[in-house]
Amino acid sequence: MSLQPSPPSDEVTDLLPFVELLIGAGNEAIDDGFLNSPAGWYCRMRDPLDFALIREELHWPGHVEVSELHDSVLDRSTWAAVLGPGAEGY
């Protein structure tokens, strides 16, 4: 499954590989992809993010923060996020 976020997709481009990897490993995107809020774009995942898989399979730019503590991946350049159920504000 390939997610197609609502425009502007360039705001979530650096996060799409995370979501696609997690979906490929059996997780599910709640809301069928990215939603927009006053705080920015976000994609909620059904299960906790698999950080071992993320670290093994992906490389990300410095402006992307991967936080196991917060069960999230945050793009600090656009404030877009991938959120597991343990994320604040999930």
| Total number of distinct structural domains | 1
Tell me the major beta sheet.
Answer: 5 strands, mixed
Q: Which class of secondary structure composition applies to the elements? A: alpha+beta
Q: Tally the helices: what do you get?
A: 2
| Rg (CA only) | 11 Å
Q: Which runs of at least 5 residues are low in confidence (pLDDT < 50)?
A: none
The coarse silhouette is: globular
Oligomeric state as shown: single chain
Helix and strand run: HEEHEEE
Highlighted features:
globular, alpha+beta, 2 helices, 5-stranded mixed beta sheet, 22% strand, single chain, 90 residues
Written overview of the protein:
The protein is an alpha+beta fold. It contains 2 helices and 5 strands. A hairpin with a 2-residue loop joins strand 1 (35-37) and strand 2. The model has no long low-confidence stretch (mean pLDDT 91).
How would you summarize this macromolecular structure in one to three sentences?
The protein has 90 residues and is of the alpha+beta class. It has helices at residues 16-24, 51-57; strands at 35-37, 40-44, 64-67, 72-75, 80-83.
